[in-house]
Amino acid sequence: MASNRFFDRADPIAFAGTDSRDPLAFRFYDKDREVMGRRMEDQLRFAVCYWHSFTWPGGDPFGGETFNRPWMHGSDALALARDKADVAFDMFRLLDVPFFTFHDVDVAPEGASLKESNDNLKAITDIFAKKMETEKVRLLWGTANLFSNRRYMAGAATNPDPDVFTYAVGQVKAALDATHALNGANYVCWGGREGYETLLNTDMGRELDQLGRFLSMLVDYKHKIGFEGPILIEPKPKEPTKHQYDFDAATVFGFLQKYDLVADVKLNLEQNHAILAGHSFEHEVKTAYAAGLFGSLDINRGDDLLGWDTDQFAMNVGEMALVFHEMLRHGGFTTGGLNFDAKIRRQSIDPDDLLIAHVASMDACARGLLAAEAMLKDEALTGPLNARYAGWDQPEAKAILAGERTLEQVAERALGLDPQPRSGRQEYLEGVVNRYV
User: Fold this and answer.
1) Rounded Cα gap, residues 413 and 137, in angstroms
2) Helix (H) or strand (E) holding 400
3) Lowest mean pLDDT among 11-25, 243-257, 300-314, 355-369
4) b/e map of 88-101 (b: 16 or more CB within 10 Å)?
5) Would you kindly state where each structural domain of the chain is located, as residue ranges?
6) For residue 4, what pLDDT is reported?
7) Beta strand pairing status for 231-233 and 138-143?
């Protein structure tokens, strides 16, 4: 299979301008355009994910494989993994993205033992390293899949069986070693099974302590080997479990404080997970910044009519503009980026569908970024926001917040006041946003 191209085109997809109608050309994503002092490519830091793009076969709960990818069928699992790597790096080149991401079992087959699995991962890691010597793409983050294998049906770090916990530690060590070997910028933990299906068989306090210890060991090992990037937790409230311990950004903040992990662990946030938690994407990003935990983003979306994680490509320009507005206010990404944790629909079976989906979403992100830049330069949202809280910049208000006034002193001052309500101007601000998107 490796000798035959999966994609028909050979030239990377290029910027063609807004007049273009070519679905395989960028209309808004001009990687060299400067946005708030950085090239657009450096602001958005796009990453292609390995699992949905090259591992998911197109199935759903009611139907099986639809994609019939050539690297998914055969008896030599490592040979198929090498073929898959060839296709993946070809797509990274065609999209001209700066980053990619992977789970351990996406890139290398699981063996009959943990040692065999780790050896397989090492073999593919060596192939990646060789390819990366001559390719532009770099690793945004790696992670371990601690949810698909049946051994993890009751969790990994939170499993009632310490042998499963131990196995998961071995798997994570190998995944972090691979990430470090490839100079990954971050390492992600997603607790898909770290939660419960029923409280009737769950000791929540014990399981949270196990999870805290697991992450503490990971942080200690990160420092031991000199891995400089942050550990990222990806919050999600439910699905596949009824309740996951990393429910949302605020819940993870409390967990990290309890187990003294705030300094080393940040957040990888996703729109679809925010919606499942009853929040907006913007809410989760603002919460992360307020807690000092913002790290990276999965850039996808859910379906408003479906109550599960549909992982569709992000296309809502207005939604992304507000998220990027918050990011740009805080200086943009450091080690993080925009990871396409998104999959094409199971009816999108042509090879070009995989490219088109990424191109369309990259353009939508670029439009959102440009809108965010314009709003910031015009102070369209920050101006009214600062005016609303201007009273807190006055000396007396500052003294209250600084702890320089007692309750009695503040209450005494209140006797001379008659404050009147002021309009929140919500509809005005919604109209302002619509001018830009």
Assistant:
1) 61
2) helix 395-401
3) 300-314
4) bbbbbbbbbbbbbb
5) 34-377, 391-436
6) 57
7) unpaired
DSSP codes joined into one string, 226-248: T--SPEEE-----SSSSEESS-S
**Per the structure block, which two tokens stand in for 214?**
């697991």
For residues 83 and 2, the answer to whether their CB atoms sit within 8 Å is: yes
pLDDT in tens, 89-147: 999 999 999 999 999 999 999 999 999 999 999 999 999 999 999 999 999 999 999 99
Q: How far is CA 378 from CA 216, 321, 410, in A?
A: 44, 14, 37
Percent of all residues in the chain with a pLDDT value above 90, rounded to a whole number? 97
Can you tell me the mean pLDDT for 31-48? 98
Q: Which two tokens stand for residue 14?
A: 């290029």
Using DSSP's 3-state secondary structure scheme, residue 32 falls into coil
Q: Where are the alpha helices (DSSP H) in 133-248?
A: 162-181, 204-225
The tens digit of pLDDT for each residue in 194-215 reads 999 999 999 999 999 999 999 9
From residue 368, give the alpha-carbon distance in Å to each of 35, 309, 371, 375, 429.
12, 23, 5, 11, 17
Q: How far apart are the first and last CA of the chain?
A: 44
pLDDT exceeds cutoff 50 at 50 = yes
Determine which helix (DSSP H) or strand (DSSP E) holds 328, and give its type and residue range: helix 317-329
Mean pLDDT for the chain overall = 97
Interval 157-178: pLDDT, tens: 999 999 999 999 999 999 999 9
So what's the architecture of 34-377 in CATH? Alpha-Beta Barrel (3.20)
CB 247 within 8 A of CB 240: no
- Can you give the pLDDT at residue 3? 43
Global pTM? 0.96
CB 267 within 8 A of CB 249: yes
User: Which are the contacts of 271, defined by CB distance < 8 A and separation ≥ 6?
Assistant: 281, 298, 299, 300, 301, 302, 314, 319
Give the pLDDT confidence score for residue 1 in this predicted structure.
Answer: 43
Residues 286, 249: Cα–Cα separation, whole Å: 9
Angstrom distance (rounded) from CA 61 to CA 294: 34
Catalytic residues: 103, 106
